[in-house]
Amino acid sequence: MSFIIAWYNKIESIIISILSSTEFSNHHLNNEISKKITVWAIIILVLILIYKLIFQIGVNFQLWELPGKEFFIDKPVHCAHVYVDGYVITNGEINNKIILSKPLNYHLEFTIEDFENNKDPELGCTLEFTRKKLYFLFKDSSIFQEKLSLKQQENYKINDVLVYHKNKLLKDDNKALCLLGVETGNRLKVYYNLI
């Protein structure tokens, strides 16, 4: 206990010397009660700041979670539109032969009707919906009819549409785009894999 009192007296003398050096804070040290209140207020303020700093660092480094997170859920903003660069490849190899010299460029806009039947419509379109849209955009294009053999056209399936965001293959079709890190205005790379 004497150790704590010694530390308190040392901290109190440091705070008093700092406060007495300025005329603005010197009037808080005029009587003994105001001196104790001021010292305790500063100590409590510093302890709160240290606690909040350690707490926030722990949250940022994912050492612990925010309390009440299960009650106050942050919902990401749904993805309203994306830009797409479409590449036609063979045999599932991204670095393999690309059939077209230039990528197919699409601008996909999502309306409320596109995701109103989703499990959670507030999150917007799912990857599955986007994949289907891209599948039919390519299948209905003139390039599909003109450049691909009949066998390639017959073997083309919805799973042959590989969607990448930031060089990462997006796989979970049931998740909304915003939960996969895709934001409004982002650019997706799509590979139409032909076998």
Protein described:
The chain is α+β, with helices and mostly antiparallel strands and 195 residues long. The protein has two domains: 2-60; 81-194, Ubiquitin-like (UB roll). The protein has seven helices and five strands; from the N terminus they run αααββααααβββ. A hairpin with a 2-residue loop joins strand 3 (161-165) and strand 4. The chain is rod-shaped. It starts with a helix and ends with a strand. The mean pLDDT is 87.
Q: What kind of assembly state do the chains in view correspond to?
A: single chain
Structural class comes to: alpha+beta
**Measured distance between first and last alpha carbons:** 78 Å
Mean pLDDT, nearest integer?
Answer: 87
Query: Which CATH architecture of the largest domain is right?
Result: Roll
Task: Report the radius of gyration as a whole number of Å.
Answer: 31 Å
Number of distinct helices: 7
Secondary structure tally: strands: 5
Unreliable stretches (pLDDT < 50, length at least 5) are: none
* Count of domain modules: 2
Assess the beta-strand content as a share of residues.
Answer: 15-25%
CATH superfamily of the largest domain: Phosphatidylinositol 3-kinase Catalytic Subunit, Chain A, domain 1
Globally, the shape reads rod-shaped
CATH-derived topology of the largest domain = Ubiquitin-like (UB roll)
Provide the succession of SSEs.
HHHEEHHHHEEE
Helix fraction bin: 40-55%
* Spatial order of strands in the largest sheet: 2-1-5-3-4
Keywords: Membrane, Transmembrane, Transmembrane helix
Protein name: Ubiquitin-like domain-containing protein
Organism: Wickerhamomyces ciferrii (strain ATCC 14091 / BCRC 22168 / CBS 111 / JCM 3599 / NBRC 0793 / NRRL Y-1031 F-60-10)
Transmembrane segments: 37-55
